[in-house]
Amino acid sequence: MDIASFRRMCLGIFSASYPTAQQNRQAGITCRTWVTHVLSRILAPQRAKEIERMVTTRSTTCGNQYATDFLLRREYTVPVEDLV
After folding, report:
1. What is the chain written as a DSSP string?
2. Are 52 and 32 in contact (CB under 8 A)?
3. Cβ neighbours around 50 below 10 Å, total
């Protein structure tokens, strides 16, 4: 897919957007839902949902670890993950 087609596809993911992140979230539009919709157009929808579940699980784990390290005043190193 060429970059112009990819851009058009990305622009058409949601028919509307709102001026603030809070309003977008209230409408069910988040960065995660946007990426999942993009992936669903490139990959099989089931695979896109599987990737979303992996990211959500890992995000929760990292968030919990960060909170624990913060409370215990430990250094926290941001992990970089390979999803492939």
Report:
1. --HHHHHHHHHTSSS---SSHHHHHHTT--HHHHHHHHHHHHS-HHHHHHHHHHHHHHHHHHHHHHHHHHHTT-----------
2. yes
3. 13
Q: What is the pLDDT of residues 28-79, one digit of tens each?
A: 888 888 888 999 999 998 999 998 898 889 889 999 999 999 999 999 988 8
Q: 47: which 2 tokens?
A: 């695979």
Entry pTM: 0.66
Distance CA 55, CA 83 (A): 8
Question: 65 burial class (0-12, 13-18, 19+ CB within 10 angstroms)?
Answer: middle
